Amino acid sequence: MRVGVLGGTFNPIHLGHLRVAEEAREAAGLDKVIFMPTFLTPHKADEVNSPAKVRSEMIRMAIAGNKAFELSDMEIKRGGVSYTIDTVRELIKTGGKDTEVDMIVGADAFSDISSWCDFETLFTLASFIVVGRPGFPAGKPNDALPVELAGRFWYDNATGAYMNYHGNSLVYVNGTLLDISSSDIRKRVKTGCSIRYLVPDEVERYIRSAHLYR
Ligand code: ATP
Ligand code: MG
């Protein structure tokens, strides 16, 4: 069983997130993608975000009907600032020693990876699937990793993945590059513009009826 984890604030979830999950699942042959909303997002901890419960509820609506997609409340239950390293450790602890964790990350977020808590250790515990985003093409380890860490990966022709000696992979996926972001959606709602076809219909109705982002 290969499981991918897509972490984020999801304020709100949008079609870009769903497409990223689908393309990563397909490219890496994942059996499942777990959507993992943060409790408090590092770098965004000072921002006032919608409550975790509200963000989760919108994810639940958006993924209903896709058997390969699941919602986890692991970071919300843990509380505090949601560091990926803690989540990976918890997933390995609860899933057993042979658990393979594949973190799915947009190339914009991955370009900041060297500011993530304990990021060097992260590459000894988890694999990464980096998905391109408009303005941030998915490239190669040297683009985002410090030279020394990038040098610990080699390209495996057979699988098209970069590997390290911990057995973790780094895969780059350039998919449909949808120019959709939560911040743009929040801005549109605030200015009275339509967000139809940027988020699932049910999520759009929820945002409207709960008066979010006004
Ligand atoms: P915000 O604008 O508030 O930062 P966002 O749209 O970037 O929101 P996040 O919750 O921050 O959404 O993103 C969660 C993860 O999904 C990150 O790894 C991010 O890079 C990725 N992601 C979000 N939207 C896209 C997209 N359109 N294409 C590729 N990756 C995306
Ligand atoms: Mg973001």
Describe the structure.
The chain has 214 residues and is of the alpha/beta class. It has 10 helices and 8 strands. Strands 3-2-1-4-5-8-7-6 form an 8-stranded mixed beta sheet, sandwiched between helices. Strand 1, helix 1 and strand 2 (32-37) form a beta-alpha-beta unit. Helix 4 (84-95) runs parallel beside helix 6 (119-125). The mean pLDDT is 96. Adenosine-5'-triphosphate is lined by residues 8-11, 16-17, 20, 105-106, 108-109, 131, 133, 178, 180-183. Adenosine-5'-triphosphate binds next to helix 1, strand 4, helix 5 and helix 9.
Helices and strands in order, then pairings?
Blueprint: E1 3-8, H1 15-28, E2 32-37, H2 52-63, E3 69-71, H3 74-78, H4 84-95, E4 101-106, H5 107-110, H6 119-125, E5 127-131, H7 141-144, H8 147-150, E6 154-156, E7 161-163, E8 169-173, H9 182-190, H10 201-209
Parallel strand pairs: 1-2, 1-4, 2-3, 4-5, 5-8
Antiparallel strand pairs: 6-7, 7-8
The structure holds adenosine-5'-triphosphate and magnesium ion.
Adenosine-5'-triphosphate (ATP) binds near residues 9, 17, 108, 109 and 133.
Descriptors for this entry?
37% helix; eight-stranded mixed beta sheet; binds magnesium ion; binds adenosine-5'-triphosphate; Rossmann fold; 17% strand; 214 residues
